[in-house]
Give the backbone structure.
Amino acid sequence: MDFEAVIGLEIHVELNCATKMFCDCPNRPGDAPNTHICPTCLWFPGAVPRLSRQALEKAALLCLGLEAELQPVSAFDQKVYYYPDLPKGYQLSQAHLPLSRGGGIEIPGEDGQTRRLRIHHIHMEEDVAKLVHEMEGRLPISLVDFNRAGAPLVEIVTEPDFRTACEAMEFLKALRTRVRYVGASECSMENGTMRVDANISVRPAGSDRMNTKVEVKNMNSIRHVGDAIAHEIARQSAAVQAGEAVILHTRLWDPDKKATVPMRAKFEGPCVPDPVVPVIALSAEWIADLRGRLPEMPAVRAERFMACYELNGEEAAFLSAEPEVAGYFEALITEGVAPRMAMHWLSTQLMPAVRERETALDACPVTPARLGGLLKMLARDEINAKAAREVLGLLFDEDGSPEAIVRRRGFGQVSDTAALEQLIDTVLAAQPAAVADFRSGQGKAMGFLIGQAMQASGGKANPKVIREMLAKKLAADSIESP
Amino acid sequence: MEELFVHRPAEATASGNGPLHGMKVALQPNCSVAGWPADAGSDALADFKALEDATIAGRLRQAGAVLCGTTRMSEFGFGLHGSRAGEAVRQGAADAELVLDLMGESRLAALRASVFGFKPSYGRLSRLGIIGLIPSMECAGLVTADLEVIAKILDAVAGADEMDFSMPAEPAADPEDGPIDPSRLTIGVIAEALQGLDDDAQAGFRQTLAAIRETGATLLDLSFPEFSLFPLAHQVVGAVEASSCAGRYDSVRYGRRAPGAKNWNEMYLRSRGAAFGPLVKSYLFQGAYFQFERYGAFEAACRIRSRLVARMDRLAAQVDVLALPAVDLAGSGNAASLGDTYARFGATLFANVTGQPALVLPPCPGTGGAGLQLTAARGGDGRLLALGRHLFNGRGGKA
Ligand SMILES: [Zn+2]
């Protein structure tokens, strides 16, 4: 029997706000344990939560970036469960009245058609504390780090629109791009600012039944999400084929075993409206104002790049995938670099160099102005491509403009024919065999002669000028000699 | 005899020299004062000391009041079982007491001590640093022998608190405290509020109304057919809120952690099981039942609550003030069961459901123990106090 999978995702994104969601503590969960805590995020008796304006704004921007509809009224609920990472007994979350409903992302389908994967709703919630398990001698102890308690999160809950692991991965990549665009989060599964749970069930292909689902957690990269989903589809299909029943439970992805393993369920109770955090009412003006602050989103930007800069779809998608890359590209254009040259140097030279040096595009010393200066010298034939690549390397380590570096290091290209005249005569005199080959019609001897001339110039001659001059000289000599 | 104060500071502290200069105010251990024990009457918070002042405690001090200590309270202020609220004022040990009012505790404590009791509008006083059980209904109430003291304290402590977003940033417009013309005064009487009083109390309350009519005011009979639903709305919504909100009183990070557990789940369960007294425990169980098993009934109770609020608003808008009986409906028993506790507060809990202000004047002699309870629309605290003063003086200022 052929099986089809039905997959829905629940994605937690940690917002990059300065403070926690309900107090003024810094939102830096990674710092030394329990350094960012106060009576509110420890939930001491008498504490009153105060919803952060920035958390609300970032969450709402994220919703708009995913084409979701912000709700005029939303509210927090108490999601009741007992666990030492949540010692107050409930998590503030939005269960009944979420911040937004609807929304979705279009991804390229495997058949070449675009497919829209829908979002059911997006809600805000606070993160819980982190548990650290250690041994004190032979005694196992558990420590609670409250730095993360109350950190601002949003949860994006999709419709069960996904059919393959590949679709889930494409969706997550596109989602990450959009969230980065609006500046709400770094959205990295590797460092835990994006956490994904997948709900998976299988059914006979073509059926529209919704079967019992299994939840899979603990993936820490987009690739792992794909692997875990693929594994779980295979596991469930085999089970159904063998006549076994699928039961509702949660499984953890084990990246070493490359398999999902069952986990013990955490008790979860119902949600009741929180009586303390005020209801959130968003006015139409507030939403319009926020919409005005929404940057140009990646799909729109890619289309503009194709139209304005004559790039193909793949190039435009590449350049618009990361807001930093797109911004850098446009800054190069503003500097006066031709679009194709900017695209080429950004993708094949600068970005690999940035990765190699483990820095970031927006933090590296090669600013668009400096790289733009270098590329304009290249376009004007003041240096050649080889020298330009070398100067790029130097721009990471040396101060000063590219022009100054070229001058200081003597990378300047010699295009002056008077200066090259003698050099070419010397090469021709020293290479009579190559000259003879050329004259007998062996074109590749030209390449050899250019190489000799370049070497003689110490790499500084303009190869275009050398070629022209050599061609002229050899043509003139060949008329004279018979 | 047991010492009245469970905690007395070594030296009573007042930092300001303001309008409350020298006034002695007694608190309950649910109102945070930095460094003071704040167990809210519960083993779940045993030995917990407040880290910072509640906003209202800080404002009292700044206004010059002397915080003279805390008196014994019922567990989380729920009911009056085991509470000594009102005694400090009756004995002259304090000029005023702050008493947490979840169902009418401050008002019945005042009645018990034959003094004034006032529950401000919900949102009038900051909640920061107040430990309680039913966030949407409870409020610090005032008990005092002097009506002027209520207004002075309210002036000093009420108003927006940037640390409590649940308060309106702008205080609700409080009608002008202008002159009162007795002949133009209309006082609403809700007929259904008299149901459930015994004959003596009914007769006593009618006698009080007759005395008010003699001052020249007009009495207007009003009908509130659903008035009898107030206890139900209070109990279902209150129990669910309590059950969820009490989760933070885990008796693990503070309170008494139960010994001998094999793992942390067991430790949490045992500690919580040992932490709460029987009354609160049965209340939390009831809340958990609605939360887990009858969520629809909880939602229905929330809808009923909205209806009750809307109806009360309409009635309050028709008159200057509403007059209801103030009666302690304690049965003969010890009133420690949930049913008895709710029955006892039958005359007062409506104001906790709606959030409106309520003022209890002590009963005149021969009124069957029925005091006069005045109430107005939410936010009308100042005018309510002025009218209360007028009516009290009208009957010769007699208690
Ligand atoms: Zn904090």
User: Anything to note?
Assistant: Residues 222-241 of chain A form the longest helix (20 residues).
